[in-house]
Amino acid sequence: MSNSHRKGRKAYLNDYKPKKGGGYEYKGKRYAYRGDQSFKSMLIRLWAFGGGAFACMIVAGSVSPPGINGCAYVILPYAAGVIAAVSVVWALCRLTARGQSLEKHVYEATVEALPKRGIMFLFFSAIALAGLAVYVIFNGFQQKFIHFLVFFAAQILGMVLIILLGRYIKRIEWHETPSQN
User: Fold this and answer.
1) Other C-beta atoms lying within 10 Å of the C-beta of residue 79
2) Nearest-angstrom CA–CA distance, 15 and 105
């Protein structure tokens, strides 16, 4: 089977064509930012929401609420939420690095994927909070009420920021530009 027409995950490589001087040039579809505000302002707002949610997740993990040390139904959803938060930050890094004009595969992995990554963040944060609530109902606060409040508040604030990120990114205008064949 020839590598000239890939299928599946690496199909986007078909859009890269060799240049005469060596290297490759992208010849596929592009998406250009066409928002009302500057690209920099849009990125600042995205980073405020996504980076803020990530920071909230780190703050929540910095305290030691009841059940976080050795209770699987508290720590596992929290750990999965951290992974989801890292995924959101990774998409924001990739979007920031690529600039105002994105290749189709980058657009799909950043702009289109951020709401889905946010949903994963919300899901695991909610499960972690539910697990913490169950632990506290059955075992009490164990003299860690302040830790409980900080964890709870940080998780809720992170969830609110992710909801705002999802709502904001859906309002951003990106227009498809013709391919450069």
Assistant:
1) 13
2) 10
Residue 47 amino acid letter? W
Eight-state DSSP code of residue 112: T
> What are the tokens at 36?
């009302």
Give yes or no for residue 13 having a pLDDT over 90: no
Q: What angle do CA 59, 148, 60 make, to 5 degrees?
A: 15
Cβ neighbour number for residue 109 with a 10 Å cutoff:
18
Measured CA to CA in angstroms, residue 169 lies from 10, 23, 156 at distances of 26, 33, 20
Residues 6 or more apart from 150 whose CB is under 8 A from it? 59, 60, 63, 65
Locate tokens 């920099």: which residue? Answer: 40
Judge whether residue 21 has pLDDT over 50.
yes
* pLDDT tens column, 25-48: 877 888 999 988 999 999 999 999
DSSP state of 28: S
The pTM (predicted TM-score) of the whole model is: 0.86
d(CA 128, CA 60): 11
**Is the four-CA dihedral 6, 11, 15, 16 of positive or negative sign?**
negative
